[in-house]
Amino acid sequence: MDVQEKSAIDKSAIAPRGASGGADTIAAVSSGSGGAVAVLRLSGPQAGAVLVALAGRLPEPRRAHLARLRHPTSGEVLDQGLALWFPGPRSATGEDMAELQIHGGRAVVAAVLGAVLDVPGLRPAEAGEFTRRAFLNGRIDLTEAEGLADLIGAQTEAQRRLAFAHAFGHLGQRVEEWRRRLIRAMALIEAGIDFADEDDVPAGARALARPEVEALHAELTAALADRRGALVREGALIAIAGLPNAGKSSLINALAQRDIAIVSDEPGTTRDLLEVALDLDGHKATLVDTAGLREAESKVEAEGIRRARARMAEADLVLWVHDVSAGPAPEAAPSLETERPLWLVANKIDRAGPAASAPAAWPVRSFAISAAGGQGLEELTRALGGFIATRAEGEHPALIRARHRASAGEADSHLTLALEQWERLDDELLAEELRLAARALGRMTGVIGVEDLLDVVFREFCIGK
Ligand SMILES: Nc1nc2c(ncn2[C@@H]2O[C@H](COP(=O)(O)OP(=O)(O)OP(=O)(O)O)[C@@H](O)[C@H]2O)c(=O)[nH]1
After folding, report:
1. Theoretical Cys-Cys bridge with 246: which of 23, 215, 323, 448, CB 3.0 to 4.6 Å?
2. Is 263 touching ligand 1 by the criterion CB < 6 Å?
3. Binding site for Mg(2+), residues?
């Protein structure tokens, strides 16, 4: 193809269209810095005209077209690259969009972006503005927008998977399904209000609605109890517990591969909680070194022990470190006053014979390691990664953000109240509780008044997304 060739401009193809006709046209570099290729995106009514001004013609929709890119007024060739044309409303933002794939050098990017922004009416995009327009034009719901932000920010494999499911609507669909079922139940109860004079409707309508509300309540409660979201977003919380001097701090240091905790021979050195965030075999985790659990000899130590117990009660997993050089593991599991999953880590195998690392009598998964020498650490790290991966998997999309949990929690409490008061509330009040629950769910996907939320959701995006 002759890249300098200019074809007739099809004006009808570049006219503003879709829900956002009349909005500003925005442009930004959407790729990260330093790459060989940079991606420049434009969205808005003038996107097509700008593409024609730079590339000489409007490419076939959604097909890459190799073009010399010229400054629209001086005609100077700025670069050669690929031009793409996505007419609205079937584009990412729902508006007319253009994309230029150009060489990634700073001067090239500055020249092409500068030429684009020189066109009157064009302006640089704000952070998250492309995604915000996609939401406002109904291309995505709020949970999908958040999923996109999470996908861009995903650091571990589990985060990528969960974010991908959200970005492509899995959570949004589930929440919308809850909302539709609620509205159906509400309609049944309202049918009772409308036809209150007709004897056969009211009792039957309420009775029909109740099992549906009960089922919804159970699903919401289960979704709220599911900690997968926090697990993937914030990482698994792993408490390292054990008697003083067992080697807890040494184990954390070894796993973190740097010296964070204070290691000393003196029992009871770890007086406070010490938390370390790390990547365990591709999974995010926070390790908490808990103060040696024993009879406190001082007030400070007592406080450390109290906090250690509290943190252990929240942990996804407790690793009980036992010093095998001091003797075999106790017959029974230590009483931790918590029901958290527990693994036994027999430490200091370098100091004790192989007999000392025999599995403990208590029925838990056990590992034999040397925090100082490194033996067994690789196996333990892999097992911890596997543990987090298994926990992060699930059939349903999780409520990952505090915002999701707040909406679901609000809906859940309206349903709890409705079910508790089912026989006492009159039809209007019962329907109102269900309406409030449906509204709370609607705020999660953005179908219900969310203006105040938009800045919060889109703030965390980068420019060009
Ligand atoms: N030989 C050997 N010594 C170890 C090993 N792990 C830890 N130690 C030593 O055991 C002592 C106690 O280790 P720490 O990591 O401070 O133990 P802790 O459980 O955090 O102790 P507290 O802070 O008292 O609760 C230190 O002298 C460590 O060097 C190991 O695998 N082999």
Report:
1. 323
2. yes
3. 249, 270
Determine whether the shortest distance from the Cβ of 253 to ligand 1 is under 6 A.
no
The pick from 245, 251, 270, 367 for probing ligand 1's pocket by mutation, whose C-beta has the most ligand atoms within 8 angstroms, reads 245
Q: Which residues of 386-410 are buried (b: 16+ CB within 10 A; e: fewer)?
A: ebbbebbeeeebbbbbebbbebbeb
| Paired tokens of 21 | 């006709």
List the chain pLDDT tens, one digit each, 465 residues: 333 333 333 333 333 333 344 489 999 999 877 789 999 999 999 999 999 999 999 999 999 999 999 999 999 999 999 999 999 899 999 999 999 999 999 999 999 999 999 999 999 998 889 999 999 998 998 888 888 888 888 877 777 877 888 788 788 899 999 998 998 888 888 776 655 555 544 456 788 889 999 999 999 999 998 877 777 777 788 999 888 889 998 999 898 876 655 555 665 555 456 778 888 877 788 888 876 555 556 666 667 667 777 777 888 899 989 998 887 776 666 665 567 888 989 999 888 765 555 556 667 788 989 999 999 999 999 999 888 888 777 667 778 787 888 899 999 999 999 999 998 888 889 989 999 999 999 988 887 655 555 565 566 666 666
Which residue among 240, 243, 249 is best mutated to probe the pocket of ligand 1, counting the most ligand atoms within 8 A of its Cβ? Answer: 249
Place of tokens 């209007």: 428
Entry pTM: 0.62
Would you give the DSSP letter of residue 356?
Answer: G
Q: How crowded is the C-beta side of 132, counted as CA atoms within 13 Å?
A: 22
CA-wise closest residue to 284 among 236, 220, 238, 341 = 236
What's the token pair of residue 188? 């049944």
139 CB-near residues (< 8 Å, 6+ apart): 92, 93, 94
- Binding site for (6S)-5-formyl-5,6,7,8-tetrahydrofolate: which residues? 41, 99, 139, 465
Residues annotated as binding site for GTP? Answer: 245-250, 264-270, 289-292
Mutate to test the pocket of ligand 1, among 251, 253, 263 (most ligand atoms within 8 A of CB): 263
Gap between the Cα atoms of 282 and 436, Å rounded: 41
DSSP 3-state of 339? coil
Domains assigned to the chain: 11-125 (3.30.1360.120), 143-226+399-459 (1.20.120.430), 234-392 (3.40.50.300)
CB-ligand 1 contact for 322 (6 Å cutoff): no
CB of residue 347 inside a 6 A radius of ligand 1: yes
Distance 251 CA to ligand 1 centre (A): 8
